[in-house]
Amino acid sequence: MAHPQDPKKAAAAAYWRENIRLLLTLLVIWFAVSFGAGILFVDFLDQFQMGGFPLGFWFAQQGSIYTFVILIFVYAWQMNRLDHKYNVYEEEDEA
User: Would you call 93 helix, strand, or coil by DSSP?
Assistant: First the structure.
């Protein structure tokens, strides 16, 4: 006789699936910006200017760093939403 799956285990598996999907999405964006814009497509992007510098150079020097910092904030924001969705968030102390 088949046993129904434990709801807590199913919720935990769904939580980690969404967590891994988010992480992989953000890593792909980071890779595309840092490696793609900074190395692979630098010659094409250098046709354009940003702040007086070629765009490919800008991405290699500044853009990938800015993107990485933004991705950190996006990850924290999305994980807070995910934690609340699956009711696994930490209670905040009210002072």
Answer: coil
| Residue in the structure block whose two tokens are 């609340």 | 84
Question: What is the C-alpha radius of gyration for the chain, rounded to an integer number of angstroms?
Answer: 20
Indicate left, alpha or beta for 4 from its phi (over 0: left) and psi (-120 to 50: alpha).
beta
Q: Give the rounded distance of the alpha carbon of 52 from its chain centre.
A: 29
3-state per-residue secondary structure call for 46-66: CCCEECCEEHHHHHHHHHHHH
* Mean pLDDT of each 10-residue bin along the chain, 95 residues long: 70 94 96 87 89 86 90 96 88 62
Calpha distance 76→79 (Å, rounded):
5
